[in-house]
Every structure is written in structure tokens, then in C-alpha cells.
User: Fold these one by one.
Assistant:
Number 1:
Amino acid sequence: MPELVFFSGTMDCGKSTLALQIEHNRSARGLKGLILTRDDRAGEGKLSSRLGLVTDAVEVADDLDLYAYVVDRLSQGGRVDYVIADEAQFLAPAQIDQLARVVDDLGLDVYAFGITTDFRSKLFPGSQRLVELADRVEVLQVEALCWCGARATHNARTVGGRMVVEGAQVVVGDVDRGDDEVGYEVLCRRHHSRRLTSATSRAGSLSPDVLPVAAD
Ligand SMILES: Nc1ncnc2c1ncn2[C@@H]1O[C@H](COP(=O)(O)OP(=O)(O)O)[C@@H](O)[C@H]1O
Ligand SMILES: Cc1cn([C@H]2C[C@H](O)[C@@H](COP(=O)(O)O)O2)c(=O)[nH]c1=O
């Protein structure tokens, strides 16, 4: 049975790498995938992984009807055996419904990859719809780690290493950004709720308040 699968996790847990592996294994067997993405860090029309692999993809615009797009391709003699959608959190809920229809009416597997929650730990609308509609939600097995060593479950947005909680839901960016830049850091829930990033935890441990008092 064809399926809509949502591969979900924090930032930097290997989602795009897995998307590229699935694409590689299937295309090595002569299958033809339609690869969709939106706002990848590598630029328009790219699906990229931090391991250095990158492939061309269709950049999904706000108003692109994904079901109609696949039907058009097929009716023009194009081949589509399966669909991969990376950065699926950025898709509109209606586009997730269209992907579900690709599974149900066209009989194609659809593999969607994305983060579930934003920097305020609120669901992205596209991810919410995926959780509602997917046949399976798969959490990636290579766990990203918080600075404390616990499993990272949340995405923090940072400016100069400090966690921020105000701003637009969508700001394309990466982990390990330099000072003063907007970046992201994955944290466990405890440290996300306390707004304690690796930089602020280091600053706290160096603070004079907590240094041992030197004996005279
Ligand atoms: N230099 C490296 N050596 C080995 N693995 C790496 C390296 N850099 C990144 N990775 C792996 O790549 C993962 C990020 O992969 P990526 O597909 O870009 O993540 P996502 O799409 O989930 O944000 C990291 O969690 C890590 O496992
Ligand atoms: C938490 C959060 C993330 N984003 C952006 C930042 C990146 O461009 C992508 C996630 O990409 P990855 O391949 O999973 O690392 O999402 C955002 O726009 N808003 C957020 O709250």
C-alpha cells in the first residue's frame, strides 16, 4: 500500500541526509522521484544535507497545487514513481492535503521530511497537518544532543548565542552561526524552557557569583 510518511525530528538530526539516501536507493533501481523542497539553506530549487550532498529539486511556491502538479507531469508523459518533500514544515496545510491525495488517488508513496515545532515549540501548520494525515510518523534514529548530553527535542533560535522568543515563525538559518547572527541550537525540553543555550550556560558557569571564593 502506498503511504504518506512524515520523517520528523529537530534541526540537524539527518532528515535531508535520509531524504537523499531514499532518493539514491530508489533511483539506483531505475525509479524516478519527484523531489520537492522549500527554502532550503543551499538556495532555491536545492535539497541539501550538512554532509555535503545536494540535489536539484522543485521549489514549491505558496500557490502550487502539488496534486495538480503531479497529474500534469504524468499526463505530459513524465514519470513519477514516488515523491520526496523536504522542509515540509514550510508547506501550507492545503499542500499536505494535496500530497495525501497523491498517495490515495495516484497510488504513489510520499516521503515528507521536516521539523515539527518552531523556536517557540509551536507546531508549524504544515507539520501539524502531516501529523494529522500521515500513515506513519517516523522520528529519526540518530538523535541530536543538547549541550547537556540529553536528547535534543526542541529547536531554539539564537542571536549571539542567546535564545530569543520573539520574531517571525519562518527565518531560514542554520545551527552553529557566529556571534550576532540569527542562528539555531537544538536543546532538551528542560533547557529550552529555561532558555539556557550552550553559550549562556557557559557564561553562567563563569559568572563571579558561582566561582569559588578564594581563601585569603
Ligand atoms: N562532519 C560531519 N561528520 C559526520 N556527520 C556529520 C558531519 N556534519 C554533519 N553530520 C551529520 O549530519 C547530520 C545533519 O544532517 P542533515 O541531513 O543536514 O540534517 P537535517 O536535515 O535534519 O537538518 C548531523 O546530525 C550529523 O549526524
Ligand atoms: C526552529 C525554526 C527553524 N526554521 C528554519 C531554519 C532552517 O532553515 C529550517 C530547518 O532546516 P533543517 O534542515 O531541519 O535544519 O527551518 C524556521 O524558519 N523557524 C523556526 O522556528
Number 2:
Amino acid sequence: MTGLTLKDIRKSYGSVDVLHGIDLEIKEGEFVVFVGPSGCGKSTLLRMIAGLENITGGDMYIDGQLVNDVPPSKRGIAMVFQSYALYPHMTVYDNMAFGMKIAGESKQEIDRRVRAAADSLQLGKYLDRLPKALSGGQRQRVAIGRAICRNPKVFLFDEPLSNLDAALRVATRIEIARLSEQMAGTTMIYVTHDQVEAMTLADRIVVLSAGNIEQVGAPLELYERPANLFVAKFIGSPAMNVIPSTITEAGNTTTVTLTGGKSVTLDIATAASEKGKTASFGVRPEDLRVAGAGDDYLFEGEVSIVEALGEVTLLYIEGLVPGEPIIVKLPGIYDIKKGQKMHFSADRSKLHLFDAEGRTYRK
Ligand SMILES: Nc1ncnc2c1ncn2[C@@H]1O[C@H](COP(=O)(O)OP(=O)(O)OP(=O)(O)O)[C@@H](O)[C@H]1O
């Protein structure tokens, strides 16, 4: 039963600094997901936890033990890669048994663990096949099964679903969620680009950008209370609308004037010294609704694009910042035409405000 502690972890390749001092506590049994834009350093951090990359600075502890110089095979971790990395000439059974054979486990113990892992991943009927006779999803399940057989204390996943098509991604994602419930005491760390994977699998998400942690929190905490503009725009799809604005009244509530629009009062407290400062006003596409005639509204504009997806309708509204339409996401199907003029409103509690450095004013 194992937790991890990362203290001021740094990574440089020559003169290029990739990670700038990562501090993170991961509790035993926790499912933690690293997300962030391409190149932010999430795979590097995962590979450092695995021991596949050396640590330039800082200390890393697994289960209370300093592991900076401990080789991968002695860390009690198992890693599942995007590329499956199966041995092509070995059957599914032998692929799953290989690590245990090397470790000198008994035949009976190997058989017991392989069959238990195959059962939990519904691979029982494929044990005699070679990897080439399996679908991508099945191969990835074999790679996961092989990792389970090693009885890891920490399970690492590096974008395990990114080679799969959409339907298989969903099925395998659900498989991983089930697995993490079955292996409740096993710590899992998972790197992905995919927001749905992050939101559905994680106990906590770590948002990284350019080698730094932007925010760590439960999925809905990040969605509802982003600490800064980066997280606000990164979590949620389509991204949060952000409108440049100026603070005209500060106090227990804050009034801002939106660029190209009207004044809006938010239930967010700001210090008197904030009055007159520029700020970024944010509202998520799904938090906007059509304002009825005579209702108070947040902004008005003209529909430039309608995307009817069946389940939702996306509207692109021009009228505030030229060339930067506001996106509105309405549930279901609407008969709305391009060129139509419309008014939109939102609950005050759903409005966000960030200072000139991008930090949230909502505490
Ligand atoms: N061996 C290396 N030598 C030099 N730079 C490297 C090396 N490996 C990674 N980098 C750089 O480190 C940064 C972080 O890479 P990393 O693969 O961790 O990013 P990532 O967030 O996982 O990206 P992606 O989502 O695209 O996989 C990138 O800018 C990358 O170019």
C-alpha cells in the first residue's frame, strides 16, 4: 500500500529545463491523472516516477523510501504504454507470464495470476493466441493484464488508449475504471490528452503547463473552481468563453464592463484597490441560456454559425470582441438561424473573473 511524494522535482535535458520543481503528494490507492498540452512534461514526469528517466533535481519517495537512484525493476511499479509493447512471438499467456518467469515465480503461482488477470479483463479465451491475432483493444488489455500480474504497488499508464478507435477507447476506459475499483489499494497514475478520460477516471487531476503544476484537484473542483485562466480554458469543452473587461465597482460584489458589451455584477468579492483594473470575465458555453423577452441578460449578439449535433446545439455569437465569437452550448435541438439576433443570460454563481495575471478572484 503505497503513496508517492515528489519534492521539488526538476528535469533538464542539457540546458533545456523541462520540469521546474514539481511538488506533489499522491495517497496510496489514489487514481491521479496528469493532463496538459503537448510538451508540458507529463510523460517525462511519469517516466521519472517509473525510473526510466533520471532526476535532475529534487527528491522522489515511493512508500516513504527515497527512490532517486533505485532502478525501475526495484520500485514496485508497472507501466502500460500507448504502444502495448507485447512480444510478438509469444502467446497472450506467455506475454502475461514473462515477467513472473524472469522473477522466478513458481509455475502454479504464475498460472494462478495469469488466469486471474485474464478473467478480470475478459481475456480468458485468447490466452493461446499471438498478439497479431488480437484487436488493438484486446492487445492493450493484454498489456494491462501483464502489468497486473506483476502485483505492482503503483500502476503507471502512459496514454494507454490513444491508439484505439473511439468505440474501443470507451470500452477500454470502462475496463480501466472497473480495474481500479477491483485494485482499490493500488495507486494509479495516468497520463492522457483526453479530458473525458481524465474527468471520469481520476480521483484527482494534476494540470500541468510548461513544466509547472497549474492546479491539483478533484475533477469537478477544477471544472467549477478553476484557480486560474489556464485551467479554466483547459478543462471543459468547448473551452470557457473569456471576455476582456474592466472592473468598475469593487467590494462584496464586483461590477465589470465587458468589452463591447454591458455592465455585469458578479457575486465575487474584490478589494477596493481592484477598481479600474482590467480583468478577464469567463462563462462556460453550457452555462449560457437564451434570455426571454424582458429578462435581464448578460450579452446580445448575432448568430454566425449554428452546429446542430442532436444532443446539443452550438451557437457562435458575434457582437462583443470582433472576430472572437462567444460559444453557447444549448441542450437538444433548436430552430435557430444564422443572422438571428439573440440575448443570453447565465446564473451569477456560474460566472468567473480572473485578474490581469490570470488568477481567479473567486475564492
Ligand atoms: N530526450 C529528450 N531530449 C530533449 N528534450 C526532450 C527529451 N524528451 C522530452 N523532451 C522535451 O521535454 C518536453 C516535455 O516532453 P514530454 O514528452 O514529457 O511532454 P508531454 O506533456 O508528455 O507531451 P505529449 O502530450 O506531446 O506526449 C518537450 O518539450 C520535449 O521536447
Number 3:
Amino acid sequence: MPLRERAPAKVNLTLHVLGRRDDGYHDLDSLTAFAGCAADALTLEPAAPFGLTVDGPFARPAGDGDDNLVLKAARALAARVDGLALGGFALTKRIPVAAGLGGGSADAAAALRLLAQLNGLANDDPRLLDAAAEAGSDVPVCLRSRAARMTGRGEVVTPVEIAPTPAVLMNPLRPAPTAEVFRALGLAPGETRDGDAPPDDVAAWIARGRNDLEAAAVRIAPEIAAGLLMLASQTGCRTARMSGSGATVFGLFGSPQEARRAARALAKAAPAWWVRSTMLR
Ligand SMILES: C[C@@](CO)(OP(=O)(O)O)[C@H](O)COP(=O)(O)OP(=O)(O)OC[C@H]1O[C@@H](n2ccc(N)nc2=O)[C@H](O)[C@@H]1O
Ligand SMILES: Nc1ncnc2c1ncn2[C@@H]1O[C@H](COP(=O)(O)OP(=O)(O)O)[C@@H](O)[C@H]1O
């Protein structure tokens, strides 16, 4: 029987960029949450040879080659754990790719959880955390897949309690490559910006927050501005913002019914977009 894990989409409720480091990465401060029903599915068959098959609506852009983050994460863990038992992975790809939803990172984290289960490793085993950080900046926060404050390059993860938050996610199905968006932000190496301590109240943290990558991402994918306008003008959402490096935008609502109603209206108004209503936690 294969082992199974869900790999839920990540949403950056806030994303503040605090500076560009000399190693080319940016220091971030982000309140991050996870979608209840926008997720990839990953299985691991211990008896099968090491490898990966991919199916689902976004199988092609994700690819099943060596650069898939599932295999990259598995190799990063195998390099740290002598005699690590592996197996055959099968991924069903339902999260749009290069969308600011951390789909590849969620898959990498799910692969690490499956390997931890197979090999009897604890969730807080430092080798698991190191392998996650090597696989990508967003992978550490995806290991737990519950709301957290993410700082540093992404590797410093502090759990945050948030009330389950009804949301609509919408993506124009145009990729917004993360590195390109950070480049478009145009910070010089070593340049820093002041960061504020977030308010204790999570609702205020979200309401007063922002996504510093929004303007840079709009220059690369102008549809983002149209999505934000649709959310703000047509749905009555409390907050409309971009997730990660885009191009996914999200609206936050007072109730799941309002979110579902808005998702139906948006899917009709923008039939070429991927639209989902979900709870963020
Ligand atoms: C922006 C965020 C916010 O959660 O999300 P996405 O838009 O990818 O979902 C993440 O920081 C993305 O994390 P991840 O997608 O894992 O990025 P990585 O593979 O580590 O890095 C890809 C590239 O993005 C840039 N990068 C990434 C993270 C970071 N803190 N600073 C950066 O400058 C670098 O140019 C790097 O080469
Ligand atoms: N399992 C995977 N799912 C999606 N993309 C993947 C995966 N493995 C590698 N990639 C590559 O990683 C890049 C970022 O993908 P993704 O995680 O979807 O971006 P984002 O974090 O912006 O949503 C893409 O260029 C894609 O080709």
C-alpha cells in the first residue's frame, strides 16, 4: 500500500521584503497560510524503484524530470541520512505552476514527510529541516503546512494561530517566475528596508500588511492588476492582495458562503482564470 500526503497551496497573507542580501536572496517577513482545498496529492510506494510519475491538470508544466522538487528534496534528505529507504513517488498536480502558491515547495515538503514516515524520522529532525531549506526557500514553511510567520530567506518559521479564513484564489494561468519578479523589484545588493514588528492581533496584521512584490509582478504579468480590481470591485472582500511572487491574487471574506458566491461570480466573469474558494489555516 502506498503512503499518501496532501500538499496544500501556500498563500502569503502578507509579504514584506526587508532587503537584498549579498548572496542574491532577499530577507522576507511573511504571514503565510495554507489552503484547505487547493492541493496536490503525493504518494510513495516503498516497493517501487526511486522515481516520479506526474499526472493531473498541471502535470506538464511541473514535469517529472530530475529538476522536479519532489526528487530534489528526496535527494537532499538521502545525502543527510545514511541508508535512507526511498521508493516510487506519484504526484497529482492540481496547483497551477509558478503561481505564487508554492506548489512545488508543497510537493517537496510532502515528499520529506513521506520519507520521514517511511524511515521513522521525527518531524523536527534537523536533517529534515536542512533538506527542506536546501530544496527551496518556501519548503520549510510547507513542512507543517499551517499558518506561520516566515522570516530570513524563508527558513525561519514561527507558528501563528489564525482563525480559519474564507478566501478566493484566482490565477490567470500565466506563470510569474519568482527569480524574475525579485529582479524586477530592483533592490541593490546589501540594500535594506525598515521592518515593523507585526501587531499581536492577526486580523490587524493582515489588514495593515502588504505584498512588496505586487508592483514588480504587475510589470511582468499585468493581469494581476485586473484580478485585484475584480476582487476589490466585484466581490465585497475585506482584503484583496497578491500571493508570493504572483500571479495568484486572493480575496478574504467574512464567511465561506460569501467566498463561494464570489468564486462563482468570478469564474463567470473571468472564464480563462483558475478560481477556487477555500479556507486558509
Ligand atoms: C516569493 C515566495 C514567498 O513565499 O513564494 P513564491 O512566489 O515562490 O510562491 C518565496 O520566497 C519563494 O520561494 P521559492 O520558490 O522556494 O524560491 P527559491 O527556489 O528558493 O528561489 C528562487 C529564486 O527566487 C529568489 N528569491 C527567493 C527567495 C528569497 N527569499 N529571496 C529571493 O531572492 C532568488 O532569485 C532565487 O534564485
Ligand atoms: N513539483 C513541482 N511542482 C511545480 N513546479 C515545479 C515542481 N518541481 C519543480 N518545479 C519548477 O519550479 C518552478 C516553480 O514552481 P512553483 O512551486 O509552482 O512556483 P510558485 O512557488 O511561484 O507557485 C517552476 O518553474 C517549475 O518548473
